[in-house]
Write a structure and sequence with these properties.
With 255 residues, this protein is mainly alpha-helical. The chain has eleven helices and no strands. Pfam families: TauE.
Length: 255
């Protein structure tokens, strides 16, 4: 794999953003996905970035494992499986342009949903009305099933489930640390589950794996910076940053 100096710098920056996303502000991972898809063929880029995502997931779990909400994970994880299967089929049958644009549309829809939901939450008269856990159990299960399936599809096609899940977790009323802990375990389990699908689609290559190895130091630097930021950022600011970066990532994928 022959890359220019500029492309190496771009990929190193993307790897740094992945580390930052895994331990800090999750929305920046979407920008990294777009950067990899710019330098590499779109389908091959999904497997190349997957390896780095798993490395970042391991770091995130090591930092935030005690803050996970396992009850929420139990609602989300089963619904991921049909999304992964559908996503693998989608990657197999469509071209790269269609795949990138489809994911961009998903990201923008999630941003619109978050803006709408935030407005509804501000209009709620009491804290009880705002708390998602006070909604009927069937509704919470239905929402988790829908989000899980969409996230499974998005992560299998373009590693773009980060914004989807972050927005959902923000709506669930968790703290920043609970959001990070739950997200860390969720993405580690889901990304490991994606490996057989990507291998079956022949998306991995020796050159890409060697490239990933060279990019790990940049990822570690980003992870260190992200862990410092995560402990000092407010939930509102966390949400605002996620919305902005998700929108930027979607626009980059559409271009």
């Amino acid at each position: 794999m022959e890359l220019t100096a500029f492309e190496w710098v771009l990929l190193a920056g993307a790897a740094c953003l992945i580390g930052f996303a895994k331990t800090g502000v999750g929305g920046v991972a979407g920008v990294a996905v777009a950067a990899f898809a710019t330098v590499l063929p779109a389908k091959e880029s999904t497997a190349a970035i997957l390896v780095l995502l798993i490395v970042g997931d391991v770091l995130a779990v090591a930092l935030y494992r005690k803050h996970a909400d396992w009850r929420l994970l139990a609602r989300l994880l089963p619904a991921v499986v049909p999304g992964l299967v559908l996503g693998a089929w989608f990657v197999h049958v469509v071209d790269e342009t269609v795949m990138r644009r489809s994911i961009a549309v998903i990201l923008l829809v999630m941003v619109a949903l978050q803006l709408w939901s935030s407005r509804r939450r501000r209009e709620a008269a009491t804290a009880a009305e705002r708390a998602p856990e006070n909604r009927p159990a069937w509704r919470r299960r239905l929402e988790a099933a829908g989000i899980g399936t969409v996230a499974g599809f998005a992560t299998m096609t373009a590693n773009a489930a980060g914004p989807v899940m972050t927005l959902y977790l923000l709506l669930s009323g968790r703290t920043v640390m609970q959001l990070l802990g739950t997200g860390a375990w969720y993405f580690l389990l889901v990304n490991v589950a994606k490996v057989p699908f990507s291998a079956g689609l022949r998306l991995f290559s020796t050159d890409a794996l060697l490239m990933d190895l060279l990019l790990v130091p940049a990822l570690l630097a980003g992870a260190a910076a992200g862990s410092l930021v995560a402990r000092r950022i407010s939930l509102r600011l966390f949400g605002d940053v996620t919305l902005v970066l998700t929108s930027v990532a979607a626009i980059l994928l559409l271009v």
